[in-house]
Design a protein that fits this description.
This protein has 151 residues and is mainly alpha-helical. Helices cover 87% and strands 0% of the residues. Helix 1 runs antiparallel to helix 2, helix 1 runs antiparallel to helix 4 and helix 2 runs antiparallel to helix 3.
Length: 151
């Protein structure tokens, strides 16, 4: 795979991941504020199916990023490398279980305090991942600006 193709694939996968997490986060807040229980069920179902797109996009982002970075561990690449494990662990061990459990609770009409506690945990983990992903995007843009452009 060419370097140009690798960069493009990385950029597309990273932006798709960020947009999906942002959509999940925003739709969860909006439906809690303005929706009814059937809307909540729909959003939680959509998020669960959306995760089937998010996980491969995140994997592609990580794999292509690691391939492009090579052995570099300093500077902006080093910062991005340090954030990625937190993003992955938070996604796999907090956000994914929360999404599955909220889907289950919503589809069984169990809108108890447990639902809302898990929802708050999911929102806190979501904003954490959005922040870390945004920092990675910002650092990628800085790196792209610092590349030598052909004359």
């Amino acid at each position: 795979m060419s370097k140009t193709t690798l960069k493009l694939l990385h950029r597309i996968a990273a932006m798709a991941s960020f947009v999906l997490v942002l959509c999940f986060f925003t739709s969860s807040i909006m439906v809690e504020l303005f929706g009814d229980t059937s809307d909540i069920v729909m959003v939680k179902t959509t998020i669960l199916f959306g995760i089937c797109v998010l996980i491969p996009a995140m994997a592609i982002t990580g794999i292509t990023g690691a391939k492009m970075a090579g052995k570099a561990n300093k500077g902006l690449i080093g910062k991005k490398r340090k954030r990625m494990p937190f993003i992955a662990v938070n996604g796999l061990f907090v956000l994914l279980p929360c999404a599955i459990y909220l889907y289950y609770l919503a589809n069984n009409q169990q809108f108890t305090s447990v639902f809302y506690i898990v929802q708050v945990i999911e929102l806190m983990a979501g904003i954490t991942n959005l922040t870390l992903m945004a920092l990675n995007i910002r650092d990628s843009q800085k790196m792209r600006k610092n590349e030598v452009q052909p004359a």
